[in-house]
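Entry 14. Ran structure prediction on the chain below.
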Amino acid sequence: MVRKMLCTSRYVFLCVACLAFLTGCSDPAAKYVGSYTGTIDLSGQLKKKAEAAGPAAMELVKAAKATLNLKEDKTYDVTFTMFGKNESESGNWSAAETVLTLKATSKDKVGSGGAKLSANEDGTLIWRNASVTITFTKS
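Output, structure tokens:
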């Protein structure tokens, strides 16, 4: 059960990386350029599974980190640190109003089809699905 949760969490982190590097081709998108640190929150069935696996599983999830770098040239790189291992991805990003889209350039990475992030007025970028929310805060 813990193994399945770890695999699911890894997939989510990689998807988030793809989402974090969305748009930014015009002056309005320039405000998104920079480095971000991500925190992960679980909900729904995934949270129940992690809690059922015990406190150690929840501590592993809490220790997981994500860093996202949105560059001026509309490229990005993202790194997820989870369970003592780093997973990285890079690609292109774009922005349309308050939605950023990330598209990985490597086909072997999870989430390479693209990811979408919501930009909030406070400057945070949010990626979420039914069980995981990643909040990126500008460093």
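DSSP finds three helices and eight strands in the chain. Will compare against last week's run tomorrow.
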